[in-house]
Amino acid sequence: MTDFARLFGRAPDVEQSAPGRVNLIGEHTDYNGGLVLPAAIPQRTRVALARRSDRRVRAWSREAGHAEPDEYRLGAEARGGSWLDYVSGVTAALVEAGFAVDGFDLRIESDVPLGSGLSSSAALEVAVLRGLRALYALELDDVGLARIAQRGENEWVGAPVGIMDPLAASLAVPGSALLIDTRTLAVEPVALPRALELVVISSGIAHDHARGDYRTRRAECERAAAALGVAYLSDLGEADLPRALALPEPLGQRVRHVVRENARVRETVAAFAAGDVDAVGRAFAASHASLRDDYQVSIPGIDRLVAIAAGDRDVAAARLTGGGFGGSIVALARRGTAAAAARRIVAAYGAGQVLVPEGTRG
Description:
Elements: H1 3-8, E1 14-23, E2 35-36, E3 38-51, E4 56-61, E5 70-73, H2 84-96, E6 104-110, H3 120-136, H4 142-157, H5 164-171, E7 176-181, E8 186-191, E9 196-205, H6 213-228, H7 241-244, H8 251-274, H9 277-293, H10 300-310, E10 315-321, E11 327-334, H11 338-349, E12 353-356
Parallel strand pairs: 4-6
Antiparallel strand pairs: 1-3, 2-7, 3-6, 4-5, 7-8, 9-11, 9-12, 10-11
Helix pairs in contact: 2-3, 2-4, 3-4, 3-5, 4-5, 6-8, 8-9, 10-11
């Protein structure tokens, strides 16, 4: 990063990065103690850091567009409602967890699109934490790093995200998906079917997890779990749905989505292993319908984009990915056709951006 010397008058000591992620299936299950199946995408957030001898943090982001670095002091972090909260949040969480760090200079650049449901915030947090781990030789494993990233975003940014995003940014590798049990944090790599290629398309409609309906959905799940006497909605199964659906609306619908979405993750993993493309398509279609109808996080523009993708001759599966209320869709196209299919979908939609036109294969 040659701009580091221009900004800070010296070369960086370390450089690190972390990927964005696309969630193949298992939406809004992570904060409910359930199963998720994310995969890394090619887009990454890259950071360069140099150690300081004081407690100052000077941070500059290419995407923020500021001419000069912003700064704060370690131990005096304050929420400012800007991109810098993602940095100060993780340093505050790191210190609260007992890790000793001094100040540092930081340069950030990213090609993970903001507000596209591809976890740009977790990519930033994990990249910064990887940089600090290297800079200060911190004894912090990848799971612990993800926990600190989540804590920073929950407590400092104010976004009630689950563990999936930082864990995927910390552990996922190109070429396979990652089956995560968010209750136990057990992780298992899952090969994608060789017959399929991954397609990710941004709708061009941004979302924001730090406010709005995402927070409402999480609160609804917590109320439903308390009413049903369980710690997490993922403690429930299909046999519990009649009792759940007797709850005041929309709590029962939220429970139904979580219970059946966990089952769809298992079905998708089994279908991948068997090379059953049709079963993958059915699971994706049912997931999107549930997100639209039971969880009510899709919007007309996303529904239209999914419908266009699902109707393409080379697409086997398509659904909303991420928290919803905008963002991106994920699709699986038949091998060798992803780039052409992505171009057709975007042209028919009339907007959006192809983010992974051909990418992660089994």
